[in-house]
Design a protein that fits this description.
By secondary structure, the protein is mainly alpha-helical. Helix content is 84%, strand content 0%. It is globular and about 45 Å long. About 3% of the residues have low confidence.
Length: 180
């Protein structure tokens, strides 16, 4: 498996996770964490597509603005997901991150392509700080409620079991129709 092939496989797996999370959200719309996870996976997939894409459907400047913008968007969406997962309410922080990511995307759109890498590298440094915040936040929540992370696994397990049960019922109906 070459590096490019590995990136393609990881891209497809991330898209699969996005589709699964979106499917869970469609069935359980009151639980927005699935939608935030799906959106974060889509942003990461868009960002990682540049690792193997040979022909892109956009001009180079637009493509690189999209790729770097999705890097920043991913961390905001991941924060939204993590907050919902941990039951944390931080509207001012979330608003600040949205303002930051929209400002970053606008900045990327206005600067020359040659300046994009040095500028985006500085902007991406905020991502590192947000990841550190998320690690600390989830560690604190994990101490406070050690079962919190397991709830998502249980929800995913229940959703998977429900989908399996629907498939079995559908197959049973098909057999009944065929026998009739």
């Amino acid at each position: 498996l070459t590096q490019i092939e590995l990136n393609r496989v990881l891209f497809l797996l991330t898209l699969l996770v996005a589709l699964l999370a979106f499917g869970f959200w469609v069935r359980r719309r009151q639980e927005s964490l699935y939608l935030w996870l799906a959106a974060a996976c889509l942003a990461w997939s868009t960002n990682s597509a540049h690792l193997f894409a040979q022909r892109v459907p956009l001009p180079a400047e637009s493509w690189w603005v999209l790729v770097h913008g999705c890097t920043d968007l991913w961390i905001v969406l991941l924060t939204q997901f993590a907050h919902r997962l941990a039951g944390v309410v931080r509207p001012r922080l979330e608003l600040a991150l949205w303002v930051w990511v929209l400002g970053a995307m606008a900045l990327y759109g206005f600067i020359e392509l040659a300046a994009l890498i040095p500028v985006s590298s500085k902007v991406h440094a905020v991502n590192v700080l947000v990841v550190l915040y998320l690690i600390i936040q989830l560690a604190v929540e994990g101490r406070r409620d050690p079962v919190a992370v397991m709830r998502v696994d249980i929800d995913i397990g229940h959703a998977g079991e429900a989908l399996r049960q629907q498939r079995l019922e559908r197959e049973h109906r098909i057999v009944e129709v065929a026998e009739a």
